[in-house]
Amino acid sequence: MKVVTTHAELRAALDAAGRGAPVVLAPTMGALHHGHLELVRLARNEAGPRGMVVVSIFVNPIQFDRAVDLESYPRPLDEDLARCRAAGVDLVFVPEAAAMYAADRSVRVHESLLSRGLCGARRPGHFDGVCTVVLKLFMLTRCDAAVFGEKDFQQLAIVRRMVRDLDLPVRIVACPTVRETDGLAMSSRNVRLNPDQRADAPRIHRALSDAARIDGGIDGVRAMLDAARAAIVASPLARIDYLELVDAETLQPVDTLERDAVLATAVFYGDVRLIDHMRVPAQPS
Ligand code: PAF
Prior knowledge:
Blueprint: E1 2-4, H1 7-17, E2 23-28, H2 34-47, E3 52-57, H3 67-72, H4 77-86, E4 91-93, H5 97-100, H6 118-122, H7 126-141, E5 145-149, H8 153-165, E6 171-175, H9 195-200, H10 203-212, H11 220-233, E7 238-247, E8 261-269, E9 272-280
Parallel strand pairs: 1-4, 2-3, 2-5, 3-4, 5-6
Antiparallel strand pairs: 7-8, 8-9
Helix pairs in contact: 7-8, 10-11
The structure holds pantoate.
């Protein structure tokens, strides 16, 4: 496995590998857990044994809206590299922020529709930061395909929209959410939960899965949201940032289940913000 930090080293490593075999990127911000290793596994599937699996590790400053979140984001690089090596990654790209962003940079990608609600509404500029870095990583790694986790389903929808709208020649592969045995969605932020918060946090997944089973007929959507909300706020440790039922494609809030929907939430435990969601299939009346 090769580790490169500069654009020039990355270019040289890609050139050395030749142009024949597919390059598949798993973009990450590090602090790799089993969910990321699942991205790597899917990337290897896509690339095949002769293809090249590239992992980028970059805590992208322009997608953080809160300084505390950026500063406290875990950066265990040695462990991350060991995990990549064990998972059979071919190339790891670990750029410096100064090399990714010129001090006088003046161009960024702006998504104007799917990012309006949910996390986008609470984190101004977040998805523009994600789109900008993802586009740069696509260009730098010249990848044929890239793997994104379904856990960040709004991010996945927005990246797909960017690929469609900008005709990017990259196939997007979705990786199902990986969960701890108690149901908590794996996230690099989980390590920042204290023991009480960690023990409590699986209630998010339970609340969403129980609520998603409620019949979505007349007043069903309201009942679903009320049930999920009640199950989360029953804990004094949890504070809901948002809880919404949105259309699975447009991400706009819905009050009927005529089309597939997603019950999505962000919950604060102290200053740690966890997100999760559950698909709710259409229940045509
Ligand atoms: O999902 C993430 O870890 C990040 O948003 C990504 C896609 C690596 C862009 O920084």
